[in-house]
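Consider the tokenized backbone below.
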């Protein structure tokens, strides 16, 4: 099994996260920020699946997007109201 999704699959998963999980992407980023200091993508993905009941695919997409934005120094969406 691949550890990463194709760019198309990743974009589809990211777009569907609010509908499927009931939380917006920035909320998942907050969860990762407050979560345990796990180093690897797979550890953080497994933590999300265990703690929040996410499927492995969505958990992995969230972690990869979080890492990508931090690596690119992109702005994490701040749609908090």
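A designed sequence for it:
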């Amino acid at each position: 099994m691949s550890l990463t999704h194709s760019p198309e699959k990743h974009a589809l998963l990211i777009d569907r996260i609010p509908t499927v999980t009931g939380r917006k992407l920035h909320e998942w980023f907050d969860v990762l920020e407050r979560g345990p200091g796990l180093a690897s993508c797979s550890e953080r993905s497994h933590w999300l699946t265990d703690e929040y009941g996410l499927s492995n695919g969505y958990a992995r997409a969230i972690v990869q997007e979080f890492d990508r934005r931090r690596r690119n120094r992109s702005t994490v969406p701040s749609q908090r109201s």
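The longest helix spans residues 56-71.
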